[in-house]
Every structure is written in structure tokens, then in C-alpha cells.
Amino acid sequence: MTKYFTPNEQLIRYVYQEMSELESIAFEQLLQQNECLMQEYLDTLDMLGRLNEMVMEPSEKTVKAIKKKARSSGLERV
């Protein structure tokens, strides 16, 4: 018996293509039958798309702290 740790674990596994082919087929059928689950699936895809578009950079303070630590540790020059 497979145990799921969160209610949405199947949805996450489907989005990240971590299901077997048979599981995917069964989940797609469930998506077609369950309007709420389909909306949650679409919302998840939208959220992932937005996250992938974000450009994140460390602050100057963080970069300076890393360089300082590297120098004090005798690591190669950054």
C-alpha cells in the first residue's frame, strides 16, 4: 500500500512527472472527473511558471560575507 504524506502529493508527483505511466493515466482520468482537482492542477502549473520566471540574486551583503569567509578560510580567491 502506498502512503501519501500530503493531500496533494499525487498532484505534485504528476506535475514533476514522477508517476509511472499507469499512475499518470489514472490521474489524468481523475483530473477530467474532478473540477476542483483540475483547477488546483492549473493553479499549480501557473505558480510553477511564475517561479521559473523569477530572477533571484543574492544581496551585496551576502556576496561580501561569502567572500570574507572564503578569504579567512584560505580558500581560492573568489
Notes on the protein architecture:
By secondary structure, this protein is mainly alpha-helical. α2 (21-33) packs across α3 (35-53). The model has no long low-confidence stretch (mean pLDDT 87). It has helices spanning 9-15, 21-33, 35-53, 60-72.
Keywords:
4 helices, mainly alpha, 78 residues, single chain
Strand content: under 5%
Query: How many alpha or pi helices?
Result: 4
The major β-sheet equals:
none
Low-confidence parts: none
Strand tally: 0
Q: Given the C-alpha coordinates, what overall shape results?
A: elongated
Average pLDDT across residues? 87
**Portion of residues within helices:** 55-70%
SS class: mainly alpha
Separation of the first and last Cα atoms: 51 Å
Integer-rounded radius of gyration: 21 Å
Order of helices and strands: HHHH
